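Pasting as-is:
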Amino acid sequence: MRQAFAFALLLGLAACASYDARQHADVLQTALHDDQTCRQQGAKFPDDRYLSCRLQLQDDRLHQDWLNLQLMRQSQEQPNVVPAPYTPREFYRPLDPAHFVCNLVTEEDKRDYILCDETDEPQKP
């Protein structure tokens, strides 16, 4: 019994670690793609033009995810004979440029990545 529990626990931990590693790899791949896209437009890190480009790319992805979520919610709702009362809908909140930062990070593979994200603290001037 203990061996089965220990095996299940190890299997669960391995699955979590694998998922986390895959998610991190996806973040790095997206950062590389966004970096290439912005460089092709003539922007270079850490210029404001580069930050605006990365902000726009990330915001477009988040907005598309939000739209997909709205569509999934609509498809789950069954039409009623009587219309439902108005229920407030969630609104999309675009990324705030004042809180959007990019940092140069060197990963374990000795490659440099420029990772960008929205933070709680305002961007430093």
